[in-house]
Amino acid sequence: MSMDAPYLHTGRTNQKARTRDALVAAARQLLSRGVTPTIDEAAAEASIGRTTAYRYFPNSRALLAATFPEIELRSLLGADPPEDPLARLEIMAESLTRRIVEHEPEYRAQLRLALEGEPANGDSLPLRGGRRIEWVEDALAPLRGRMPERELQRLVYGIGATLGIEALVWLTDMGGLSREEAVEVMRSNARTLLRSALERLE
User: Fold this and answer.
1) Could you tell me the residue ranges of all domains in the chain?
2) Predicted model pTM
3) Domain spanning 5-66, CATH architecture
4) Residue range 156-171, pLDDT digits in tens
5) What's the pLDDT tens digit per position in 85-100?
């Protein structure tokens, strides 16, 4: 449980939730403008007092961690997904990469926190506890029982590595690709890994 939880859950909880949401929204706005926000900057952006802001977030790392887009979906495949693993992967990869591009400033903030090493607020960072692997496992579910579990797990992690913010940052910042080009490379790499695994099953 995060450090701000006890304060949020005692008295005037609806108002406190709105205040916290306003601080997170302000931090996201600053990130979208290329600013890594401090507590003071987010408080000023949200027209909330500095002292009040620190009741919700003890430090800037905790605030940045809170900007991570929460996606509660256990699957990105939608209703009535196909059985073909390649078709399932394509649906999942399109949805995931679209979300990463839409929330790129927040994802980049989480990546910076992860690279710094220390967990925000004493908790595991959202990026580390994200659902990417779970979504890839869901897409490849029809392969369970068709290949050794260890091999399937390596495939899941290999595909997961091609579809994250880490890959997007490298392809755009280091490789110089546009976001559209980077996303296509990411999805193409994921398809190639899966096709290679499927060929070995034949």
Assistant:
1) 5-66, 85-201
2) 0.74
3) Orthogonal Bundle (1.10)
4) 999 999 999 999 999 9
5) 999 999 999 999 999 9
